[in-house]
Amino acid sequence: MAIRIKKVSNKKELKTFIRFNYELYKDNAYSVPDLYDDMLNTFSPQKNAAFEFCEADYFLAYKDNKVVGRVAAIINRRANETWNKKEVRFGWIDFIDDLEVSKALLDTVEKWGKERGMEAMVGPLGFTDMDAEGMLVKGFDQLGTMATIYNYPYYPEHMQRLGLEKEADWVEFKLTVPDKLPEKFVRISEIILQKYKLKIKKLNRKELKEKNYGQRIFDLINEAYAPLYGYSQMTQRQIDQYIKMYLPLIDLRMVSLVEDEAGELVAVGISMPSLSEALQKAKGKMLPFGWFHLLKALFIKKPKVLDLLLVGVKPEYQSKGVNALLFYDLVPVYQQMGFEYGESNPELELNKKVQAQWSAFESVQHKRRRAFKKVF
């Protein structure tokens, strides 16, 4: 029977769209489910600030009247203008191991994009860099993270068979928390502090709110990430949204800031306990007991693994070793809190500056993910 594609047009179909991923991966030991309510907010034009400059539709694939795939078609006008491109993104793509299904989904995105004047298709990407991006091509036997995509090995095989080509790769590292910082690392960090007249800043909740550090952190991220592949500057509404959503959950001990002598923010590192196993136990739901698993991982019995969510350095400080100061501050915190390993976020494979920061630690590059592209 032919594949039938249907655009999501009501709440019931949107629920089906979200839940399809949970069903497809319910028996997989490595997939980490998103929280259902978070996904509802992400896909809502009223809740997601990215819709200020994005357009999107969501599609379900049916075979024998059964859902067998899903995909989101997205145009990020801000990114297209920044990079002088006319690209439609495909995101949140999932499908059974049937080439007819994956082809029908991608053909739908291509047609949708062409109707809106686009000249190429790229993905998997979300609305912005704050969403998970990149299809896993290595590391299928590694536990996923809250901020990344997990997919079966047949996904990239389908992309290649359908004529899509590599556009960009990201790599991820698993790092061992050392028992002691190497003396050379400590010495270099102290030299950098003195040479550039920098200081490490630790926040408390009062300062975070009263001195507007949330805004300052995201302004720095906008500046630091501006040259990175596909990045679109966060709007003020997006920044307000992320401050409200994420900062209350962060353990401030696991946040490190570096300021210059004038008190200007020049670097930030944000980490948190891994929520991967807690999210698996929650099965995508906060109720009835999902909230307990998440709170336990955050505040009660922390896992042995932490997620290195975000590292940002002002461009003029990026070649001066300032990254080292973040870990000069944070590694002793990780030791005290009992963490054994850290998971880096995806880093563009060409971003050697970022990858160089792991050279002082025992690490292994254990995952790789890819954005695929097709020019029309």
CATH architecture of the largest domain: 3-Layer(aba) Sandwich
Gross morphology is globular
Mean pLDDT: 94
Number of strands: 14
Overall number of domains: 2
Helix content: 25-40%
Under CATH, the topology of the largest domain can be stated as: Aminopeptidase
- Separate helix tally: 13
Please outline what is shown here:
The chain has helices at residues 11-24, 36-42, 77-83, 99-115, 154-161, 183-195, 205-210, 213-225, 236-246, 276-282, 290-300, 322-337, 352-356, and strands at 4-7, 54-63, 66-76, 87-95, 120-123, 135-138, 165-176, 199-201, 255-259, 265-273, 305-313, 341-344, 347-348, 363-375. With 376 residues, the chain is α+β, with helices and mostly antiparallel strands. InterPro entries: Acyl_CoA_acyltransferase (IPR016181), BcerS-like (IPR039968).
Question: Which characteristics define this entry?
Answer:
Acyl_CoA_acyltransferase, Aminopeptidase, N-acetyltransferase, alpha+beta, 14-stranded mixed β-sheet, BcerS-like, globular, 13 helices, 376 residues
